[in-house]
Write a structure and sequence with these properties.
1 helix; mainly beta; six-stranded mixed beta sheet
């Protein structure tokens, strides 16, 4: 009797085992549903407190850069590129899916590895991940592409764009309007001229003579206001809609303030030493008498909202006057009635030098200046008060872009030049020997 119970118990256990096998979930399908890269090092060069180049390591996690899984084309990739200098030669991964996961290297596709979460994988070799269905009837292969920035995002990269048709001009001035770059100057015969090219494509259209402007008395200073061009010639303001045909719009003016943007207002200094302002070139308002040290030559204006209150704008003028070794910088806020000079730093090295051909532009949230001799960019983060030479070490070096460097061929260039910034984030520099350079901080390029 006992033997019969033992046999019956064995039969029941056998049946339970069979039921477990029959109920085990098996499918011919396979897919990776989640993919994350673990922690890795980021290497980059920086300066230590002594101003010496040093290699710095940071630790980042791949969770900061989500991986997209393209189930149609069997691709796994990150839309946001990882930081320049990311070292992915040995990182772990977190993978989920329905099936058994493995991986292999593209340069050795015969060898396959069973994936484990602690495996150190070299993504610099090119990696494929595989997942095999639970019934072993189907294997799916994903190409894994990990995108890394190829250049340091704060670096300024330069190229010499096509100069086809660009004439040799002297006394250069340039402005950017719409998709076009306008470069003014006098040609080899002494005729005031302009050359134009599309920023996105195309060649320069050669030298086009200006009508209504003569070399005698021309200031070689061009600005935009409400889409039109303005300059001073022979004691009058001249305006143009097409940059070629010019007419007198205001007499009795000795200089205008060049705007680094289409500000919508034109500032001028009259022959009787008043500061004037107009938005339509018909009605002119006298703002104030010209104060001592106010820039009367090569003045450049920028206007931008305050970081603490976007409803209020600050305007900054930087330029030259006849009695100083340093440039003069002034500011005014929305609602103020008078221009005031900014504080002059006690440290002479932090003042804006009164260099010939002084050019100022706003870029990456700061003001940058260049002058004849092109020794390098000077940067101001405090609305024109202090100016640091970008190649120099400063205590708070993280806030100064030391990567703002001129191309080697331009450094020390002692003749005339002009510079402007377009809407795509590029800085353009044109020299009077007929050369053109274009550069941008990589993270600012607006494609």
């Amino acid at each position: 009797m006992r033997g019969r119970y033992i046999l019956l118990l064995a039969a029941l256990l056998s049946c339970v085992s069979c039921l477990k096998d029959d109920n085990k979930y098996k499918t011919p399908q396979a897919a990776i549903t989640s993919f994350t890269i673990g922690f890795y090092n980021v290497r980059f060069h920086d300066m230590n407190i002594k101003g010496h180049d040093t290699l710095v390591y940071l630790r980042e996690g791949g969770v900061m850069y989500p991986m997209t899984i393209d189930q149609v084309n069997n691709r796994i990739f990150n839309l946001d590129s990882m930081a320049y200098g990311s070292d992915l030669s040995g990182v772990t991964t977190s993978v989920y899916g329905n099936g058994t996961v493995g991986y292999r290297y593209k340069d050795d596709p015969i060898v396959e590895y069973l994936w484990k979460s602690h495996d150190s994988i070299d993504f610099t070799r090119g990696v494929q991940f595989l997942i095999r269905s639970t019934d072993n009837s189907y294997t799916r292969v994903y190409d894994v592409q990990v995108n890394i920035h190829k250049v340091f995002p704060d670096s300024l990269l330069w190229s010499a764009p096509d100069t086809t048709g660009f004439p040799v001009l002297s006394g250069l001035a340039s402005v950017f309007r719409g998709d076009s770059l306008f470069c003014f100057g006098t040609d080899t015969t002494g005729t005031p001229s302009v050359s134009v090219r599309s920023v996105s494509s195309g060649n320069w259209n050669g030298a086009n003579a200006l009508s209504g402007i003569t070399e005698s008395g021309w200031s070689h200073r061009i600005t935009l206001c409400n889409g039109k061009f303005y300059t001073v010639c022979g004691g009058s303001v001249y305006g143009s809609s097409d940059a070629v045909n010019w007419s007198n719009v205001k007499s009795g003016v000795r200089s205008i303030v060049v705007s680094g943007e289409d500000y919508g207002q034109l500032w001028a200094v009259s022959q009787d030493s008043n500061i004037l302002r107009s938005s339509d070139m018909t009605e002119w308002t006298t703002v104030q008498r010209v104060p001592d040290n106010f820039p009367d030559s090569a003045a450049v204006l920028f206007s931008y909202p305050l970081s603490t209150n976007s409803a209020i704008s600050r305007s900054v003028i930087a330029g030259l006057n006849a009695d100083s070794l340093n440039a003069s910088v002034w500011t005014i806020l929305t609602g103020d009635t008078l221009w005031t000079q900014v504080d002059i730093p006690a440290n002479r090295d932090l003042r804006l030098p009164a260099l010939a051909g002084l050019t100022v532009f706003r870029y990456d949230g700061a003001l940058f200046s260049l002058g004849q001799g092109l020794d390098g960019f000077r940067q101001s983060n405090d609305n024109g008060i202090t100016w640091y030479l970008c190649k120099s070490y400063v205590e708070d070096y993280s806030s100064w872009n030391r990567y703002m460097q001129l191309p080697a061929a331009l450094k020390g260039y002692a003749s005339g030049f002009t510079a402007t910034v377009d809407s795509k984030g590029y800085i353009w520099i044109m020299t009077d020997d007929g050369h053109v350079w274009r550069g941008a901080i990589t993270r600012l390029i607006n494609k």
